């Protein structure tokens, strides 16, 4: 995390400076002590010089006239100049011309106010290279507590500055890249509920460029249909200290809806408690629109092809049935007319009724043939784990769920025994039931739309799979009929879905029931035997 | 209108039980009928001399209903057609009706509806036959006129007076009067109105007024 790294280094510089300032104070105190000691002034000065020269930092001292009166050996060694050259304002000759003005200003201002100061400037080293120094100065006093000038110490911070600079650069580069791809970066402090965000992110969400923002400021911008889902995802991530990915819609103040993709990462404190969430968010409206269009297109196509296939089937069924029905109609009409005319030849009438019966049987055979056709498809039985099947179907219907703002929850029983079944057919069953569940919730407010797919092992080792919705439920009078062919409550439906579902489940030796769930909505449950199909 | 006793109903269907049912239904309504398994079987039979109608399925193997209709039109045959059809042949229905079919019944049809269609078809066939007989007769009479008489007659039916006709043909009014009298006698008409009706039956348009 470059941001934190940069903060870390800045902190380090400050800490070092503090440490140095402590050293300087210590040195000043030491000098005072030396001055007042019985050993006399000269000795004390010598001692001070020894101490100062031994310090691993550059030390200077100035008098009441602000002019420098002392530089320690490390300083002289660093600049490669003699003490005489440095005294007074001589040292300023080594300061980088760009930094000199500021140096004097800070020094003078602090000096007049007797305030400690910290400043950074470039000083020419003996080899001619300018190095960054962090210079910290404090007022010094003599033994009578009279102001005697300043004492300062410097440390070479070039490496740190370079690192900082490199970081700043990489940060800047990152920011430019992020801007270029419209990537918003943010950090959410959980304890304070404060969200820091890059300008890109702020403008993506439609927040003003500055000002305090919290989680509610964010969630209130999320599309109402997505709010619960996003809250849930983020809550879960914080709870589990995990990363998360999500896609959601933002409604900007001007009413425009934008699709966002966010990747968030929860940061834990030392006590393993989540304290911050970092994240990046990107505007994916264009991609989403293309996706949704493609989905619409695909759905339309599949619906059309389904309708076309059904149309073909219906045409051939109609043709097969129309022939005997035409025969029946003609014969019955003829019979009536014979009777009306009063010349009923009973033998002829008998033969006529026989023909009607034969045609009726023929029509019946046609219908049985259709049923046989549905069942005749060659089964491809293999070991199937129903939980795998559930996750596969959930993946497949994800776009539908998104499109219909519907949450999909799975409650699977772990370690289900495999069953012997045709995976494609069972997938069709589950898909059909799930898509039905979505369709049943067209009138359900989006925040209540949810489909729960559950697997469960029964005591007799059969497995129960249920698909529950929170829609209108099944009217009592329709409950018996939902599995019949051509029975439908949908305007677009053909009424074949559940009939096929049942025929598949039954061909696997299973059963299927439809019921209304407690708390509203319908539940379709099918039960399959774990020990393999009966057929 | 009574349906002449020499009327005949043909039915073509590739399904035996439909054929049998149709035959019985037509007999119950008092129609004479002949039943064929295919359109080509039907075409092999000589054209019936009296009013005739054909009940046929749009979808038949080899020669389908639409093909048969086209063949009959090409051969200038005047049987009236009643189509019966299975599922969703709306475009064919429109096409068949445009080409002069009496009606188009979806299968499974109602027996009485089919019989009503047959009745309408036979009435239409009878009328058509009468019209074409009259046309033949009128054309036969008109053929008796000399070219000059025909010329005069064509101008008479436009409503021109003898004097005007004489002017038009560059001849004397008296001559026109003679031609006109002869033509009326040959055509066995006594008034201009009768003459006009006769030429209409023959589908003869009045000469363009020069």
Task: Provide structural commentary.
- The complex is a heterodimer of chains A (535) and B (210).
- With 535 residues, chain A is α+β, with helices and mostly antiparallel strands.
- Chain A has 16 helices and 17 strands.
- In chain A, the strands form four sheets. In chain A, strands 2-1-5-4-3 form a five-stranded antiparallel beta sheet, with helices on both faces. A five-stranded antiparallel beta sheet of chain A has the order 7-6-10-9-8, with helices on both faces. Chain A has a five-stranded mixed beta sheet with strand order 12-14-15-17-16.
- With 210 residues, chain B is an alpha/beta fold.
- In chain B, helix 6 (147-156) crosses helix 8.
- Chain B has a five-stranded parallel beta sheet with strand order 2-1-3-4-5, sandwiched between helices.
- The two termini of chain B are 43 Å apart.
- In chain B, helix 4 links the parallel strand 4 and strand 5.
- At the A-B interface, helix 10 and helix 11 of A face helix 1 and helix 5 of B.
Write the layout of secondary structure elements.
The complex is a heterodimer of chains A (535) and B (210).
Chain A: H1 2-36, H2 41-54, E1 58-62, E2 68-71, H3 73-79, H4 83-86, H5 97-113, E3 117-124, E4 130-141, E5 147-156, H6 158-180, E6 183-189, E7 194-197, H7 199-205, H8 215-219, H9 224-240, E8 243-251, E9 257-268, E10 274-283, H10 285-341, H11 346-376, E11 382-384, H12 386-396, H13 398-403, E12 407-411, E13 419-421, H14 423-440, E14 450-457, E15 462-469, H15 476-479, H16 497-507, E16 511-516, E17 522-529
Parallel strand pairs in A: 12-14
Antiparallel strand pairs in A: 1-2, 1-5, 3-4, 4-5, 6-7, 6-10, 8-9, 9-10, 11-13, 14-15, 15-17, 16-17
Chain B: E1 8-12, H1 16-28, E2 33-36, H2 39-44, E3 52-57, H3 65-74, E4 80-85, H4 90-98, E5 103-106, H5 111-142, H6 147-156, H7 162-169, H8 173-187, H9 192-201
Parallel strand pairs in B: 1-2, 1-3, 3-4, 4-5
Helix pairs in contact in B: 5-9, 6-8, 7-8
């Amino acid at each position: 995390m470059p941001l934190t790294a940069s903060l870390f280094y800045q902190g380090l510089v400050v800490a070092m400076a503090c440490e140095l300032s402590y050293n300087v104070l210590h040195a000043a105190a030491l000098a005072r002590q030396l001055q007042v000691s019985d050993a006399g002034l000269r000795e004390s000065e010598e001692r001070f010089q020894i101490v100062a020269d031994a310090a691993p930092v550059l030390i200077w001292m100035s008098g009441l006239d602000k002019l420098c009166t002392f530089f320690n050996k490390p300083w002289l060694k660093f600049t490669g100049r003699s003490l005489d050259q440095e005294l007074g304002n001589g040292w300023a000759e080594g300061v980088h011309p760009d930094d000199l003005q500021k140096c004097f200003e800070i020094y003078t201002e602090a000096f007049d106010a007797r305030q400690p100061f910290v400043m950074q400037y470039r000083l020419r080293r003996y080899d001619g290279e300018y190095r960054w120094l962090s210079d910290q100065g404090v007022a010094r006093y003599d033994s009578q507590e009279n102001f005697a000038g300043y004492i300062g110490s410097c440390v070479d911070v070039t490496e740190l500055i370079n690192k900082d600079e490199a970081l700043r650069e990489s940060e800047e580069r990152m920011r430019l890249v992020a801007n270029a791809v419209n990537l918003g970066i943010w950090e959410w402090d959980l304890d304070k509920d404060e969200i820091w965000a890059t300008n890109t992110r702020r403008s993506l969400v439609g927040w003003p460029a500055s000002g305090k923002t919290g989680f509610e400021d964010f969630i209130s911008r999320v599309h109402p249909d997505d709010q619960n889902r996003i809250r849930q995802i983020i809550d879960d991530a914080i709870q589990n200290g995990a990363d998360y990915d999500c896609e959601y819609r933002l409604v900007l103040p001007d009413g425009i809806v934008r699709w966002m993709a966010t990747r968030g990462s929860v940061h834990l404190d030392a006590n393993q408690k989540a304290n911050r969430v970092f994240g990046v968010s990107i505007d994916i409206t264009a991609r989403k629109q293309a996706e949704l269009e493609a989905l619409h297109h695909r759905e339309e196509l599949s619906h059309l092809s389904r309708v076309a296939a059904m149309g073909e089937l219906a045409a051939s069924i109609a043709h097969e049935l129309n022939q005997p029905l035409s025969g029946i109609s003609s014969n019955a009409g003829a019979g009536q007319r014979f009777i009306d005319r009063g010349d009923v030849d009973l033998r002829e009438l008998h033969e006529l009724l026989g023909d009607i019966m034969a045609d009726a049987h023929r029509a019946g055979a046609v219908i049985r043939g259709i049923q046989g056709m549905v069942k005749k498809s060659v089964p491809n039985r293999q070991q199937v784990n129903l939980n795998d099947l559930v996750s596969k179907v959930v993946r497949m219907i994800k776009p539908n769920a998104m499109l219909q703002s519907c949450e999909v929850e799975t409650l699977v029983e772990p370690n289900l025994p495999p069953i012997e079944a045709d995976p494609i057919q069972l997938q069709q069953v589950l898909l059909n039931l799930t898509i039905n569940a979505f369709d049943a919730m067209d009138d359900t407010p989006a925040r209540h739309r949810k489909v729960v797919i559950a697997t469960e092992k029964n005591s007799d080792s059969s497995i129960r799979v249920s698909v529950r919705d929170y829609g209108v439920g099944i009217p009592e009078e329709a409950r018996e009929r939902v599995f019949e062919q051509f029975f439908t409550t949908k305007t677009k439906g053909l009424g074949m879905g559940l009939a096929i579902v049942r025929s598949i489940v039954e061909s696997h030796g299973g059963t299927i029931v439809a019921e209304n769930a407690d708390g509203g909505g319908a539940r379709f449950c099918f039960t399959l035997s774990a020990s393999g199909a009966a057929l | 209108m009574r349906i002449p006793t020499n009327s005949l109903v043909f039915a073509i269907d590739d399904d035996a039980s439909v054929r049998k049912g149709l035959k019985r239904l037509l007999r119950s309504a008092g129609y004479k009928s002949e039943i064929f398994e295919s359109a080509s079987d039907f075409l092999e039979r000589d054209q019936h001399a009296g009013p005739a109608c054909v009940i046929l399925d749009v979808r038949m193997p080899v020669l389908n209903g639409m093909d048969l209709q086209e063949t009959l039109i090409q051969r200038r045959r005047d049987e009236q057609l009643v189509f019966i059809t299975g599922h969703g042949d709306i475009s064919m229905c429109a096409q068949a009706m445009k080409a002069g079919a009496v009606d188009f019944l979806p299968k499974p049809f109602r027996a009485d509806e089919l019989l009503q269609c047959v009745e309408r078809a036979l009435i239409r066939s009878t009328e058509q036959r009468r019209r074409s007989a009259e046309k033949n007769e009128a054309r036969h009479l008109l053929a008796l006129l000399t070219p000059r008489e025909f010329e005069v007659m064509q101008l008479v039916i436009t409503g021109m007076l003898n004097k005007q006709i004489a002017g038009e043909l560059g001849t004397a009014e008296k001559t026109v009067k003679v031609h006109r009298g002869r033509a009326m006698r040959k055509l066995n008409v006594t008034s201009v109105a009768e003459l006009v009706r006769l030429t209409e039956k023959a589908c003869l348009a009045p000469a363009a007024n020069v």
